[in-house]
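We emphasize that the prediction below concerns an isolated chain of 208 residues; any contacts that depend on oligomerization or on bound cofactors are therefore not represented. The input was used exactly as deposited, without trimming of termini.
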Amino acid sequence: MPTPITHAVFSLAAGGAIFRRPMPLKFYLLTAFCAVLADVDTIGLRLGVPYDSLLGHRGLLHSLPFAAVLSAAVVLIGFRKLPLGSPKWWAFLGFFFLIAAAHGLLDTATNGGLGVALLSPFENGRYFLPFRPVLASPIGPRRFFTPWGMQVIASEILWIWMPMALLCLAVWVLSAKNSANTSAKNSVNSTNNIGQPNDTERSCNTSD
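Result of the prediction step, given as a token string:
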């Protein structure tokens, strides 16, 4: 699996790229929460839960159905003031589903462990992507601060952090370009309107 840090970085970068405006602190906290929650199932490994079981690591909590339930709960509870079914409500629902689902999808790009039960609980097959360039993260803080852990971070920076940084940069450039074009058009329209009579002046001229 990618490290929790990378899951959080990916989710926060995605939020910035999608919404492109400052959001309340609660939004960012819930985004990070959805991004890392799935790995709570690693606790089961210490409790004797079989890795390949429904509640094992990369099982139900990494699935797309669970991501749908989690995103709905986050929006309904965390953003209760949003009108149910409004465009903003659906935008938040889709965003938090994307973030929760991305955890399992990112795990399918790693080179270790079992695959991800993306369709659990309806089907417990484990899936990987054909191309798996990301090194699997060690489970547990002690193993993380080792040469293996440092290699994992380097792998994640190359295959996850840098692509997300480029995506955010591209979105920022396009947004800035669109804003500049809009400002230029407004400036041209204002210039063209100088000296043109307004509605009141037209009315007075007609009366004369």
